[in-house]
Each structure stands twice: as C-alpha cells, then as structure tokens.
Design goal:
The protein is of the alpha+beta class and about 130 residues long. It has two domains: about 70 residues, no CATH class; about 45 residues. About 30% of the residues lie in helices and about 30% in strands. It has one helix and five strands; from the N terminus they run E-E-E-E-E-H. The protein is elongated and about 95 Å long. The model has no long low-confidence stretch (mean pLDDT about 85). The chain binds zinc ion.
C-alpha cells in the first residue's frame, strides 16, 4: 500500500490494549509547529483482539507521544466501556455551568415560595387570633 500522492509517513506502535502492533500514517508535516516535543496525539480506534470477539465494537482511546521526527515515543490506551462516557473538559464544564444555573433558579423559586408560604401562614395565624 503506497500512497504516492501524499507520501504519508508510516509508523507502528504497540497497542497496550489490543496487545497488537498497529500501523498509523502521518502527513509529512504532521510534527511541524508544535508547542513542545514530544507532542500528544489522541484518537480512537476499534478494539482488535483475536481472542476477545465480544469486545470488538468497543473503542480504544489512544494517546501517542510523538517527537519532531514523527517517532512514537510513548503510547497510552484505554478501552472505553459501554458505561464510560468520555467527555471533554469543555463539555463537562458547559454541563456543570448549565446545571448550576438551573439549580440556582430553582433555589430562588423555592426561596420565593417559602417567603409566600411564611407570609400566608402568618396571615392565617393572625386571622385565628382574632
Ligand atoms: Zn489497539
């Protein structure tokens, strides 16, 4: 398999989850203009295992540590369970902000209702005294 039009750089890494050697292709300038080296590259791939067929639909979240010469210096991988939701920091923050807003609105509504209730109770008590 040669992609002559793009001249992709082919690299291999040992996947700690699949226990297999995976092949990955990079654009030749993929490592250029990074803030620091090695830089991280995160992506998902489907779980591959010759023995564990039932987990084949699961995603493996992979983080590669790549140096300036496109050499893979480190690999981290986690198998995503069905009940594991991988949320980005931004998404989590957005959800928490929205929920906090809703809770605060509910709290102020509750305060208002309690105020009205107290006022009403006071009126009733005063009515009974008379
Ligand atoms: Zn893998």
């Amino acid at each position: 398999m040669v992609d002559s039009s793009k001249k992709l750089v082919v690299k291999q890494y040992q996947c700690p989850v699949c226990k297999k050697i995976h092949t990955i292709k990079f654009e030749p300038d993929f490592a250029k203009n990074r803030v620091k080296y090695p830089f991280t590259y995160a992506f998902m791939h489907k779980f591959e295992s010759p023995t564990n067929i039932e987990d084949h639909e699961k995603d493996v979240l992979t983080t590669l540590y790549i140096d300036a010469h496109l050499n893979i210096r480190g690999v981290e991988a986690v198998l995503a369970d069905d009940n594991t939701n991988i949320l980005s920091k931004e998404t989590s923050y957005e959800m928490i902000t929205k929920l906090t807003k809703v809770i605060l609105e509910m709290q102020s509504e509750l305060d208002e209702m309690q105020e009205k209730y107290t006022a009403l109770k006071l009126k009733c008590e005063q009515a009974n005294i008379k």
